[in-house]
């Protein structure tokens, strides 16, 4: 599940460091309500007990969200609220391509935008939108000259610009998360489907995305 499932887990690293005592005003949580940018299940601890989240509510419109992992330290993202969306961006470095990733979270949507990070601005590569337990990932043949925004709608982009589309449907029943994935090749029209199940107990999809795969 490339973007929501891979992007938001492996590439969210802005900083990594070993566990330490919590800073003033922060708290540790077993889970996260990502749309409210609030923790769920507060942990009465002075130090993180990974896997867990740390939420630092700096101001009503500013939050630092830290994900503490069992073996690899932590990743930290700073969110600012604007126009009813929590927004952040970060760089992703790889051997073949450098990206800038933008997140917009609000109104029951999690929007993730991948841009090529080079001297040419606004080269959109991938759009992922999660809403109502369904994630739609649109990948483009060529980079599109579109500025990052929470209002980007792949439905307004012509089909001939699309390379492929992935639809992930998430269902939770009795502590088991089932992910139904459909891949659609826009060139051939071929469709492939697969299903995977994961035990997450009483955790959320966003906990699983960070820690449970």
Would you kindly provide a brief summary of this structure?
The protein is mostly beta strands and 213 residues long. The chain is built from 2 helices and 13 strands. The protein has a 13-stranded antiparallel beta sheet with strand order 2-1-3-4-5-6-7-8-9-10-11-12-13, sandwiched between helices.
Helix content: under 10%
| DSSP strand tally | 13
Spans of at least 5 consecutive residues whose pLDDT stays below 50 are 1-18
Could you tell me how far the N terminus lies from the C terminus, measured between alpha carbons in angstroms? 11 Å
Lateral strand order in the biggest sheet = 2-1-3-4-5-6-7-8-9-10-11-12-13
Oligomeric status: single chain
Helical segment count: 2
Structural category is mainly beta
For the sheet with most strands, the description reads: 13 strands, antiparallel
Order of helices and strands: HEEEEEEEEEEEEEH
Account of the protein in words:
The protein has one domain. The chain is mainly beta and 213 residues long. The protein has 2 helices and 13 strands; from the N terminus they run H-E-E-E-E-E-E-E-E-E-E-E-E-E-H. Strand 9 and strand 10 form a beta hairpin. It has a 13-stranded antiparallel β-sheet, sandwiched between helices. 26% of the residues are buried. The longest helix is centred in the first third of the chain and has 9 residues.
